[in-house]
Structures are given as structure tokens and as C-alpha cells.
Amino acid sequence: MATNLVPQVMNALEATNFYFKRAVKLLGLDSKVERSLLIPFREIKVECTIPKDDGTLASYIGFRVQHDNSRGQMKGGIRYHPEVELNEVNALAQLMTWKSAVANIPYGGAKGGIGCNPRDLSPTELERLTRVFTQKIHDVIGPHLDIPAPDMGTNAQTMAWILDEYSKFHGYTPAVVTGKPVDLGGSLGREAATGRGVLYATEALLKDHNLSIRGQTFVVQGFGNVGSWASKLIHEKGGKIKAVSDVTGAIKNNSGIDITALNEHVRMTGGVKGFEGANPLDAAALLAEDCDVLIPAALGGVINGETAKDVSAKFIVEAANHPTDPVADEILAKRGVIILPDIYANCGGVTVSYFEWVQNIQGFPWEEEKVNTNLKKYMEKAYLSIKSTCQTHNCSHRMGAFSLGVGRVAKATLLRGWEA
Ligand SMILES: NC(=O)c1ccc[n+]([C@@H]2O[C@H](COP(=O)([O-])OP(=O)(O)OC[C@H]3O[C@@H](n4cnc5c(N)ncnc54)[C@H](O)[C@@H]3O)[C@@H](O)[C@H]2O)c1
Predict the structure, then answer these.
(1) Would you list the domain boundaries of the chain?
(2) Is the pLDDT of residue 4 over 50?
(3) Which atom of ligand 1 is nearest to the CA of 300?
(4) Which protein residue has the closest C-alpha to ligand 1 atom 21?
(5) What is the Cα gyration radius of the chain?
(6) What region does 216 belong to: left with phi over 0, alpha with psi -120 to 50, or beta?
(7) Could you confirm whether domain 193-345 is CATH 3.40.50.150?
(8) Mean pLDDT for the chain?
(9) Hey, which residues does 178 pair with through a beta bridge?
(10) Is 353 annotated as a binding residue?
(11) Tens digit of pLDDT for each residue in 239-271?
(12) 226 C-alpha to center of ligand 1: Å?
């Protein structure tokens, strides 16, 4: 496609719609199906008023957007963030629909949140807010309707409160949420799942190019949950992690960073800065570091029209959501850089969430090994399906993944029919 057809600045939401529309074209879907896929199944907006610890009242707005349920119950995170608003929640819910379909798990997409700053709220205020929000939406969520999970600003404790509040209305129901504490039915392996999925996705990509993790060099931006787990697992497989960054700074060691020692340093100091087994690196230069595989695992939009030209990696594995904007996507494609897109590369988390739900429904917890073995199978299968879609439509991995996801949802929608 010509560059002049790509708008120069696009946020994550606009980019999702942009790729969706391209997928619709590649698949040859008619405009009625396109419209039906785009319009959310249900949008919910609720008032959540709570007494604060000092006795005053505070009101917040909670959202839940249920985008599509043609392939199964809807699934998606709940975020607590000051900028949560309906349009963004809508786009994120849509993205969850395509992501679940790419992973081939029997879920549709949803997303929700409360417009609040969780750092300004005490634990008791957060608990009250979560319970009020659950009271307002309990009749439209559930194990066979819509299953929330943690996202930005929420965690396993938030899920435990939702589980408890929901269970007051419906009886004990651990399958109403995923990402909950293991003691309440959470899955072993869930914490590492997104990073482990990044490892399996990278292995599948490299295998396709007759390469393996051992012998390749890696640069990882972001050393939080996803980045640190991906780094640890890649390091254990013999990959050489040359450079890593987080919000405290960046570090580099051409002989490879000892990730076990770095994890210990981060645990003690709170960041990668000052790690003795590596040299400091200008954080702005990290993305341009010479390596085979670049793994952005922090923020959206970091690989853009400005930074893309300096990227020297042969492969980019998008562990973060939307790290590459569409302008950069084009620049990199022209240079032959292969990108594994976020809707595939970071779907390990939602896949193990699905395994958690299965274990809850069965009332039968799995060993961690079973979780990891099944995750590997799902990631490998999804890679092969994306590759075959790329061959059918002669397109990039990103458009292969979007077309695969959108195509599966369109097929389910058409099979279910529209009879009223
Ligand atoms: N956690 C999951 O299961 C999951 C699933 C799918 C997608 N994701 C995506 O992966 C990304 C990371 O999520 P996470 O759960 O690891 O978050 P996290 O908060 O645990 O970690 C984020 C990391 O990014 C670092 N960071 C922040 N600003 C930075 C900057 N300017 N430069 C370099 N590093 C910076 C932080 O220091 C931290 O190490 C996000 O885009 C998230 O949406 C996460």
C-alpha cells in the first residue's frame, strides 16, 4: 500500500480500526457484515459512588463494553486509570475479540474500567469501589456471559473482590474472573503466561527461518511482568540478551546479561539501573541497538516514524500492546524487518486465562506443566494459522493475524445467523 494512504499520526484505537478495515478488504467481507462486526454487542456506563475513608462521598464512572460474543462468552480486562473513557474501552474490547480469535480460544472480546486514579485511593476505598462496580454490572457478567481479568491499575486482589461480590448474588463462582489468586482458583503459570507466550511465539518465528533461540541476540524494552519473564525464559533457552531497559534506565552487555542476577538486582533496587553485570546505555538508543530480535515490552507507540529508521533488528516481537505505529510498520516492512504483531505475540496471557476458566468450570486444577504444555500448543498452532493466512492473502504477519481473527469471527457470526 502507498505510504500516503497511512495517516501520519494514529493512536492505538485508530490503528485497530485501520487494520480491521484492511482485514475486511482482504477477506472480501460485505459492508453489512463489516458493520455488524464493528458495532459492540453492549455498552455499559454506571455511576459508582463510595464513601471515602474520611466520610466524604466520591463518584466515579465505570464502563464495560462487550464487543462480540459470536465465538463464545466475552473476555477482557478491567482497568483503573484516570483516562478510562468509553471510546478507548470500546476499541480495546474490539481488539480482545480479534485476539481471542487469533489464539483460537472460545471467547469474544470485552473491556472495562473505572475512571479513577488507583494511587489516590486507599485499599479500603479501592475495595468499596470494586464492590459497587460489581453490584452495578453483576447481572451482565458471569462465567458464560463475560469474564473480567486484571489490567492496568488492577490486580489479583481486585479480582478476588469481584469474585466475592458476584458470589453474594449468584453463589460461589470462581469462573466469573480470571487472574485471581491461586488460593481462590487462579491458575498456576498465569503470572508468567504472557512472557512465556512471547518465548513460544519467538521460537515459532525463528524455527520458520531455520533458526533457534540459542545463538540469537535480543534487546528487551521494559522489564516488568512481561519483559522480565520473556527475558528469563529466553536466557534459559540460550538466547543472548544484550540490552534491557525500564523506567529507571537502560543497560548493555555485548557478552549477554545474566538475567537471574538482574532479576535479583531489580528485586533489591526496584529497577535495572546500576546493575553491575552490564554498562549503562542511553535509554533513547535502546531500540537502535544491534540485535537479531527486538522485544518491545513496555509502552505503546515507541516504534514510530521517528525511531523506525534506526531499528537494526531483523525481527520484532511485539510483547507490549501497539508498540509499532502504522507508519513505522510500513517503513520496517520495506526494509524486510519481520514483525510478530501484538494480537498474536502477547496472547499468552488471555490463553492461560482461558485455561484458568476451564479449570474452574471443571473444578479440577492443572499442574503447571500442563498449563505450559498447552500454552505452547496454542501458540504454535496460532503461528501456523497466521502463516497460512499470510500465504493466502500475500500479506504481512500483522495483516495475517488480523485477517485470521476477523475472518474467524465473521464465520461464526454468519453461521449463527440473524433471525430475530
Ligand atoms: N501483563 C500481561 O499479561 C499483558 C498481556 C498482554 C499485553 N501486555 C502489555 O505488555 C506491556 C507490559 O505489561 P506488563 O504487565 O509487563 O507491565 P509492567 O507494569 O509490569 O511493566 C512495564 C515495564 O515497562 C517499563 N517502562 C515504563 N516506561 C518505560 C520507558 N519509557 N522505557 C523503558 N521501559 C519503560 C517499566 O519500568 C516496567 O519495567 C504493556 O503494553 C501491556 O499492555 C501485558
Answers:
(1) 41-184, 193-345
(2) no
(3) 41
(4) 224
(5) 21
(6) beta
(7) no
(8) 95
(9) none
(10) yes
(11) 999 999 999 999 999 999 999 999 999 999 999
(12) 6
Q: Confidence band (pLDDT; 50, 70, 90) for 37? A: very high
pTM, two decimals, is 0.95
pLDDT(2) > 80: no
Q: Which three cell numbers stand for residue 59?
A: 463518584
Q: How far is the CA of 192 from the centre of ligand 1 (A)?
A: 13
Class of domain 41-184: alpha beta
Domains 41-184 and 193-345 share a fold: yes
Could you tell me which residues are beta bridge partners of residue 255?
Answer: none
Which ligand 1 atom is the nearest neighbour of the CA of 321? 41
pLDDT of residue 12: 79
The helix/strand/coil state of 157 is: helix
Which has the closest alpha carbon to 193: 163, 159, 149? 149
| Element of type H or E holding 43 | strand 42-51
Crossing angle between the packed helical segments 193-208 and 368-393, to the nearest 10 degrees = 40
Cβ–Cβ under 8 Å, residues 291 and 219 = yes
Q: Determine which residue's CA is closest to atom 34 belonging to ligand 1.
A: 246
Per-residue pLDDT, averaged over 200-224, amounts to 97
Kindly name the residue from 32, 111, 180, 334 that is annotated as catalytic.
111
Strand 315-317 and strand 293-296: pairing? parallel
Name the closest-CA residue to atom 28, ligand 1.
247
> Does the pLDDT value for residue 38 go beyond 60?
yes
What are the DSSP calls for 199-254, one per residue? HHHHHHHHHHTT--STT-EEEEE--SHHHHHHHHHHHHTT-EEEEEEETTEEEE-T
| Ligand 1 pocket test, candidate residues 11, 155, 194, 269, most atoms within 8 A of CB | 194
Choose the residue to mutate in 154, 194, 226 for probing ligand 1, maximizing ligand atoms within 8 Å of C-beta. Answer: 226
